Amino acid sequence: MQLNLPASSQALELDAVMVDLDGTMVNTLGDFAEALNRMLADLQLPPIAPQAIEHMVGKGSEHLIRSVLAHVGAQDVEGAYPRAWQRYEHHYLAINGQFADVYPGVREGLEALKARGLRLACLTNKPLSF
After folding, report:
1. Segment 100-117, tens digit of pLDDT
2. Could you give the CA distance from residue 47 to residue 16 in angstroms, rounded to a whole number?
3. Pairing state of beta strands 119-123 and 16-20?
């Protein structure tokens, strides 16, 4: 995380910073891959490579699950979705954070923002249960 702020945050008239979680501060691709592949196994569908998942992330869990089902060739994506969501939620809740890593420099970047007196907020489009 690289900070390019002037010496005084007042020069920018900032008093707070909002940062995104997934893919910005934390690499959660490992969590996604693990939960999705467990879900696919429950549905008796083939696994998906993390590299394929990477291009499907960013539009919410519902979109991700539908995209994965289509990618692995599920016959009826909409028909499979309710069970897929239930299995994904079950597995993601069980492993959330176990296969994720904080990107290099994030902790230092957040500390630098905090040291400048800025209030911090973290945003995510993850469902509340996660």
Report:
1. 999 999 999 999 999 999
2. 42
3. parallel
